[in-house]
Amino acid sequence: MIDRGYIWRTTLVVVALLAVWAGLAVRLGYLHLGPNETLRERVRQMRSVEQEILVGRGRILDRNGQLLALDLPVKNIIVEPKVVLSNGQARAVSAQLARVLELPYEQVFARVNKPGDPYEPVARLVREEVAEKVMRLQLKGVYPEPLTTRYYPHDSLGCHLLGFSNAEGVGSAGLEQRWDALLKGRPGLRQSERDGVRREMVLRRTLQIEPQEGADVHLTLDLNVQYFVEKALDAAMTNLQAEAAWAIVQDVRTGAILAMASRPAYDLNAYAKTAPETRLNRAVGVNFEPGSIFKIGVVAAALNEGLVATNDVFDCENGMWFYAGRPLKDFHPYGDLDVTGILRKSSNIGAAKIAVLLGEERLHRYLSAYGLGRLTGIEVPGEETGILNPWRKWAKIDVTRVAMGHSVAVTALQMLNVLCCIGNDGFLMKSHVVRKVVDVDGVVLQENKPEALARPITERTAALMRRMLAEVTGADGTGKRAAVAGYTVAGKTGSAEKIVAGRYVKNANVSSFMGMLPAERPEIGIIVVLDNPTDPATGLRTGGITAAPVFAQIAEPVARYLDVRPLDAAEMVYYRKILDGAP
Q1: What total of structural domains would you count in the chain?
Q2: CA torsion through residues 526, 527, 533, 537, sign
Q3: Is residue 16 in a domain?
Q4: CA neighbor of 376 nearest in space, from 405, 413, 424, 409
Q5: Region for residue 268 given its phi and psi (left: phi exceeds 0; alpha: psi -120 to 50; beta: otherwise)
Q6: pLDDT by residue (tens digit) across 86-127?
Q7: How many C-beta neighbours within 10 Å does residue 444 have?
Q8: Of 184, 200, 219, which marks where a domain is finished?
Q9: Within this chain, do residues 195 and 260 fall inside the same structural domain, yes or no?
């Protein structure tokens, strides 16, 4: 007999299954055909993907096309711990990775031994050849993640001018920061859909915007000249025990910066290990009282106004003069000095008497015309304006103090521009360090050409000044240690007591020398500034003793390298390039 209970149970199961399938069919139909926009939208969001297509950063090159900054392809080494652990290979994989990546085994194992973790970086920014060694191991759950990193081939050379881009690829200092918008290019965009295993379905791609590569920035900087400058500054820091040092080399006729350096320096490829104050570009970012190098602007103004001639004699009062009831001293006592002698001996009293002849308003007008008290407009961040107060706010004695480079503040670039104005027949040129910016297709986006900003003095005045400044580096001048064999150097020494907390500090100086050569028709101008140097042989801190020799150490190889014509062309020596790749 047929068991009726069995029939009923079977029937019940069948009916239940049919009911379930019917319910699923109804639910499926409802999902597809019913008003379920919310659910459909969730599915679309799960399947859709919007991906930013990253792009390489543009290069920075010197004036000869040598690379100063570029993007390099690197890889992160990624481990999928859940894959490695499921195979029971955590220790074996960790040991092999530690060996190839040259990392501590415990560090690698700590990253691999993370159950359920689908993504764990074991090593970041490894070189291509190291990543290839890892791939040859054929380890399951280990793969490379491609990306790029910023690389500076010459490490610290030009560090303060170049700056750096951070780990996110954003320019964060120097030229990298100032020109970030053009260097970083424009990333692309892709909108598409992916399947159940998260692979893109190319046929479902709805939008593709191609990325635009970053533009290249070509500088006026010359890598070889930069090397000569930095080598001399390093020696000065060691030999003179200076707290800091900075220097600039500029083309007198065009305003192009050939070198700009500061010390202490830092490695651009390890910028994160450097204190922020070390990254300061002192050549444009430090205001300092210039001292006697400032006298050239005062004397040039008086000559230009016809108030003095080069052989006019002034009584320098044997080293002590009272003006407005306040004493003014010279470093050495002098009697009668002509205007040339005032510059040659760097007499404070002589310069002050010339400034009094000019008067406050006229002196201030010339100083403003030289570009003092305002930005030069050079294409680097962090430039200071200097300090040049309105003449109506000057105290009674200020006209005599300004004449000797006190009660004012300048940057090294501002002072070098004044000197180069004299070297360029009175034309004040706009300083620039970027020659041109070129996109990936070779289109020039920006280009700097020589630009005259003003002409504060006449050609005759400039020629007279060069002739007088050439005596500063003669055997009887304060800058005789700046002399360069085979060339005439027109220059000026400077020393000023440092100001700390609003007060002058004894036995702490900012010493400087700036000069140009050849004096007859200058081609290059150089300024050297030393923060609190001491000459070990004499114990002196003056610019003529400390900064002038550093100038000579820069000027001699730079002049030869640039083929600046010496007095005796038969003795010309051609310097080979020091840098073909790295210093």
Answers
A1: 2
A2: positive
A3: no
A4: 413
A5: alpha
A6: 778 888 888 888 888 888 888 888 888 888 777 888 888 777
A7: 11
A8: 219
A9: no
